[in-house]
Amino acid sequence: MPTDISEKELETILVSYLRDHQGYEEGVSSDYNKEFGLDTERVKRFILSTQKEKVENTACFTSPTEEHKFFSRLSAALSKRGVTDVLRKGFKYISEIFDMYYPTPSALNPTAQQYYDKNIFCVTRQLYYSKEKTDSIDVYISLNGLPIMTMELKNHYTGQTVENAIKQYKEDRDPKADPTALILQKRRCAVHFAVDDDDIMMCTELKGNASWFLPFNKGVNGGAGNPVSPNGVRTAYLWEDVLGKRSLSDILENYAQIIEEKDEDTGHKTFKQIFPRYHQLDVVKSLLSDAARDGAGYRYLIQHSAGSGKSNSIAWTAYRLASLHNDENQAVFSSVIVV
């Protein structure tokens, strides 16, 4: 029997898979605090379960007034530094630096594994995100209460495609037109996905009609698109593979980032949010896997089309190879040279 992939059913498939197979919690829209642009209760639960001494030292949760101060400053940090930076480096409040995420542990560190398991991955359907508008975003993913991604879902069987989802982001999800929609503001969410049953597109900064969406597809025989899937949903790899806890952690720890760009003439600084495309993840992971298994001394030819992000792929590969260890926990390379 073919999979039912009406818009609501595609939403159900994605959410239920993350909940039942990937270990996500399923949230509800009311968990999201529109004033602060995050899930305050999951932030609080994560911190209380991992950093009680810091909570006591700062008295951050002793009263509604203190909680409001804490979440106001955390929200301001998301706007200034970006969610990926806050996740990686933590958040300073009064005298303490609060960890907002515990990274992927090595196999030799059981304590780090226990802390990693306290991370709260959550998926929410139909997120009502704005104080001014009444519409909702189809799917929202958070980590320890901090916003990671949004998704608009469409499908061919109802006469809509990924292009309709992109149009929806451009015309109905303009952050300048709705400043109360904090999740749409730059740097506060790592990525926005437009998804249908055949294709996936991604955008790291929403700015109305100027929003730039890039493919997040696997490719087929050297061309665009995605290969046929046995269950009829070509894009199932998004929730079955990419959004697995370890996979998403790897992306947030080693790929997603905010980079600063400075105009040499004016001195003006701009900030650009980076999130890897599927082919970039694939090439880096493939090279790491081969090198860990076979060791140094082999040659590889990687074919990239123009504008496909070669520089980032090279940088990510070099960075990961420099710290790569084999099954015996021995470094595979003593040095990495990029020409």
Whole-number average pLDDT? Answer: 92
Radius of gyration: 21 Å
- Count the strands? 11
Overall 3D form: globular
Proportion of residues in extended strands: 15-25%
Q: Quick one: biggest sheet?
A: 7 strands, mixed
Helix content: 25-40%
Instruction: Please tally the helical runs, counting DSSP H or I stretches of 4 or more residues.
Output: 11
Distance between the termini: 52 Å
Task: Tell me what you see in this structure.
By secondary structure, the chain is α+β, with helices and mostly antiparallel strands. Helices cover 36% and strands 16% of the residues. The chain contains eleven helices and eleven strands. A seven-stranded mixed sheet has the order 1-4-5-6-7-8-9, with helices on both faces. The protein has a two-stranded antiparallel ribbon with strand order 2-3. Strand 6 (146-153), helix 7 (162-172) and strand 7 (191-195) form a beta-alpha-beta unit. The longest helix has 18 residues, at 64-81. It is globular and about 60 Å long.
